[in-house]
Amino acid sequence: MVIRCDWPSNDPLMIDYHDHEWGVIVHDDKKWFEFIVLDAFQAGLSWRTVLHKRDNFRKALDDFDPVIIAQYDEAKVKSLMLDAGIIRNQLKIRATVSNALAFMEIQKEHGSFDNYIWSFTKEKVVQNSWNSMNEVPASTSLSDEISKSLKSKGFKFVGSTIVYAFLQSGGIVNDHVCECFRYRELGG
Questions:
Q1: CA–CA separation, 32 vs 12, rounded Å?
Q2: Longest CA pairwise span in the chain (Å)
Q3: Mean pLDDT over all residues of the chain?
Q4: What Cα–Cα distance (Å) separates residue 156 from each residue in 5, 53, 123?
Q5: Under 8 Å CB-to-CB from 42, ≥6 apart: which residues?
Q6: Which residues lie below 8 Å from residue 62, measured CB to CB, with a gap of 6+?
Q7: Do residues 86 and 80 lie in contact, with contact meaning Cβ atoms separated by under 8 Å?
Q8: Multiple choice CATH, 12-185, 2.80.10.50, 1.10.340.30, 3.90.1150.10, 3.30.479.20
Q9: Whole-model pTM above 0.85?
Q10: What is the torsional sign of CA 66, 68, 69, 73?
Q11: Which of 36, 41, 123, 134 sits between 20 and 30 A of 98, alpha carbons compared?
Q12: Dihedral sign computed on CA atoms, order 117, 58, 23, 14
């Protein structure tokens, strides 16, 4: 029997995400932008809700391409508001456009978003050792610091809790519980 973190429950899509994606180290800017977008849309909702709409988001948001998204005009924003396949929150949709612009500014300044985001841990994974998901914090001093930096660069929907989820997704933080089979596979 496979032992994994309990948050995926018995949802096949959540299990697949947990087993193959969550906590895997990311060094691809496009993937980082996808996580920023999806985690922003998660604010106030469950990850399950967002994950089940990810393919729809991918289609609606031009495969999470920040260069294209940064050029969205008012007509595109209005069309997204009519798309029942995504989360139709106007503030989050508009934030996605402004975050694309901020994302590209970081790329210009640091050579890549990846260089920027990994600089906060000096390219090291934060290896936690939790016995239960109840021990996992919603935010940390690291997510506080990155949240503040992102906000100073013009990002929206990047509070410390959202940033912490983003860090977990992209493998900067390994928060699989110690008994989970992925914990050791990802360096724990």
A1: 24
A2: 51
A3: 97
A4: 30, 21, 25
A5: 49, 50, 162, 165
A6: 68, 69
A7: yes
A8: 1.10.340.30
A9: yes
A10: positive
A11: 123
A12: positive
Question: For residue 156, what are its two tokens?
Answer: 């929206």
Question: What does the block give as tokens for 10?
Answer: 């018995």
CA–CA dist 165, 48 (Å, integer): 13
Q: For the purposes of burial, counting CB atoms within 10 Å of the CB of 92, is it exposed (0-12), middle (13-18) or buried (19 or more)?
A: buried
Phi, psi (rounded to 5 degrees) for 106? -65, -40
Q: Which residues contact 47 (CB under 8 A, 6 or more apart)?
A: 7, 14, 165
The tens digit of pLDDT for each residue in 43-98 reads 999 999 999 999 999 999 999 999 999 999 999 999 999 999 999 999 999 999 99
Phi-psi region of 122 (alpha: psi -120 to 50; beta: other; left: phi over 0): left
Among the residues of 21-159, which ranges form H helices? 29-42, 47-51, 54-60, 66-69, 74-81, 90-110, 113-119, 141-152
- What's the token pair of residue 46? 């469950």
